[in-house]
Design a protein that fits this description.
alpha+beta, two-stranded antiparallel sheet, Ribosomal Protein L22, Chain A, about 250 residues
Length: about 250
């Protein structure tokens, strides 16, 4: 599992290079040190949860290296590990910032070239990894590339099934041409969208009606309370007048 320590040009494995990355080589090396010698799945997990911005670029470079290994060398992503990774300094962009008293301060915008090399574990190392995973009660963890392949395969199977259904309908005479099949799919999607819009409009209307009913009930209750208060005021006024008349008579 140790990283390969031979020369730069003789390192075995599949590689990917990200050139002219707008980050300093120092910052990239701090993240590369975390994934060197790790398996692809472990390295991808570390980069996913890393808080460094350069981690996204390194993750893309790692995915590219694994894709090259799978496409060019027919290797399995679960059997790959980061054999080597390094960052070389690129050209520095020089800028100037005006300062006080007519002076200027130099600004150096660093760039770097990131290289990731992945290689396959040996048969003995794979056997040892499988044994450790068996002791833990789990198999070898599937990599992100394997998950991606499964998703692509499932999508292709769904497309193939849909194409077979359209061919069967075409053979039966329900659909005459492929254009009609596409139009039929469009009509189905449009009808589903119309149904959703109608349901949403009905919900809005129901809510509006309920709100109107509540407002009307509140208005009626307020009117009744106002009438009751007017009656009470009239009774109070009548009592006061009666009392005043009694006082005058006395």
């Amino acid at each position: 599992m140790a990283a390969v320590t031979v020369g730069t040009d003789t390192r075995p494995g599949s590689r990917a290079v990200a050139r002219y990355v707008r980050s300093s080589a120092y910052k990239a090396r701090e993240v590369l040190d975390l994934v060197r010698g790790k398996s692809y799945s472990e390295a991808r997990e570390i980069l996913t949860f890393s808080e460094r911005r350069i981690s996204d670029t390194i993750a893309k470079c790692l995915d590219s290296a694994v894709a090259n290994a799978e496409h060019n060398d027919d290797l399995d992503g679960d059997e790959l590990f980061v054999a080597a990774c390094y960052a070389d300094e690129g050209p520095t962009l020089k800028r100037w910032r005006p300062r006080a008293r007519g002076r200027a301060t130099r600004i150096r915008k660093r760039t770097c070239h990131i290289t990731v090399v992945v290689a396959r574990y040996s048969d003995e190392e794979l056997a040892a990894i499988d044994a450790r995973m068996a002791l833990k009660g789990s198999g070898r963890r599937s990599s992100a590339a394997e998950a991606r392949r499964r998703r692509v395969a499932a999508s292709r199977e769904r497309d193939a099934e849909r194409a077979e259904e359209l061919e069967d309908e075409y053979d039966e005479g329900d659909i005459k041409t492929a254009d009609e099949a596409e139009l039929l799919d469009d009509d189905i999607e449009a009808s589903e969208e119309d149904l959703e819009e109608e349901a949403a409009e009905e919900d809005v209307e129901v809510v509006a009606e309920e709100a109107d009913e509540e407002v009307e009930d509140d208005i009626e209750d307020a009117a009744e309370e106002a009438d009751e208060s007017d009656d009470e005021a009239d009774e109070t006024a009548a009592v006061v007048e009666t009392a005043e008349e009694d006082e005058k008579d006395s």
